[in-house]
UniProtKB/TrEMBL annotation:
This is Uncharacterized protein. It comes from the Bacteria. The lineage of its organism: Bacteria, Pseudomonadati, Pseudomonadota, Alphaproteobacteria, Sphingomonadales. The keyword Membrane applies. The chain crosses the membrane at residues 41-62, 74-95, 107-126.
Length: 135
């Protein structure tokens, strides 16, 4: 495994572990104690912090990637993910405004972006395979 990938995983795995612990913990504390004010705000922000760390880890993966081709493919996939996420969120928002669909939490944007990243990487891989290029 390349050093840049190892560093990414060393950042990603602890961040996602913290996310799971913080999300479950904050939900349990909220259900048990029904906090208000600043404690409620702190509980709401707590699970977002590891997600911000994951976003930082993804950015560092680009910065630290020594292979220009791999870095370009990763950025291309991220641009595809961003375009898909913005498109879906925009259409959904207009549908919400008309009452045609139920409201969905905005924090679902990051998981949607990650799904778009997968779609982008698969699409780029398939395109390269069809063109006979090495992926």
């Amino acid at each position: 495994m390349r050093q840049a990938n190892r560093r990414y995983l060393n950042r990603f795995i602890p961040s996602m572990t913290c996310y799971a612990v913080f999300l479950l913990g904050s939900n349990m504390v909220e259900a048990a104690y029904a906090p208000t004010g600043a404690p409620l705000i702190a509980l709401a922000i707590l699970p977002a912090l590891p997600i911000i760390a994951v976003i930082w880890a993804m950015g560092m993966a680009i910065v630290e990637q020594p292979d220009e081709y791999v870095r370009a493919k990763l950025i291309h996939a991220m641009l595809i993910a961003t375009a898909l996420m913005l498109s879906v969120m925009t259409v959904w928002s207009f549908l919400e405004d008309t009452g045609a669909v139920p409201h969905k939490p905005v924090h679902l944007a990051f998981p949607l972006w990650c799904a778009g990243l997968l779609v982008g990487q698969v699409w780029l891989w398939a395109r390269d395979r069809i063109a006979g290029r090495e992926a």
